[in-house]
Design goal:
Blueprint lengths: L2 H7 L1 H20 L13 H30 L3 H29 L8 H34 L10 H29 L1
Length: 187
């Protein structure tokens, strides 16, 4: 039995394992489980550039997800697959940069007027919640798409779950850009 067949037969379990591992890595970085001095240290300019690069990656990923949704609505399955695969690649790129920076320097602090801090906390909370909720949904839909021939996908939960995952994912990317703007531009 090959990997694709195994994933097709156990998609939910594989998605659950990948989600658990991914979220464990996120929380381990955020909680700084690995001492920063054990990590390879990039030059300060690189570490400082990560939030700016990640904001750009998030903005591009938002557009790519929207275009991917439009492609499937137009019936262009091949373009949809390429765009959603690209969006997942951008998400992975974002996550590697984010986790590396947070593991090295910790979360970015934010201080502003109380009303702005409250708005920031609400936006950040929604962004983080959507990102966490999206992880298992994304793994599940992507694994369904990867492990099934295109002709079989309509008989899977890919469309049902993807219809929920895609807008949540796009909103999470958009709110990530808003968080960036609040931290690095507005305040």
């Amino acid at each position: 039995m090959n990997v694709r067949t195994t994933v097709r037969e156990h998609t939910l379990a594989v998605a659950a394992v990948l989600s658990a591992v991914s979220l464990a890595l996120v929380f381990a970085a955020a909680l700084r489980v690995v001492p920063p001095e054990l990590l390879p240290r990039a030059p300060t300019a690189v570490v400082d550039a990560i939030p700016h690069v990640n904001a750009l990656v998030s903005a591009v990923a938002f557009v790519v997800v929207v275009l991917g949704v439009r492609a499937i609505k137009d019936g262009d399955v091949d373009r949809h697959r390429k765009l959603m695969g690209s969006a997942f690649g951008l998400f992975a790129l974002f996550l590697v940069g984010y986790l590396y920076r947070v593991a090295l320097v910790g979360p970015t602090e934010f201080s502003a007027a109380p009303a702005v801090e409250t708005a920031y906390a609400v936006i950040l909370g929604i962004h983080v919640t959507l990102a966490v909720v999206c992880v298992p949904l994304l793994f599940y839909t992507l694994l369904l798409a990867w492990s099934h021939p295109v002709s079989e996908i309509p008989r899977t939960n890919h469309r049902r779950v993807g219809t929920v995952a895609a807008p949540l994912w796009a909103i999470s990317f958009a709110l990530g850009v808003v968080v960036y703007l609040m931290v690095y531009v507005v305040v």
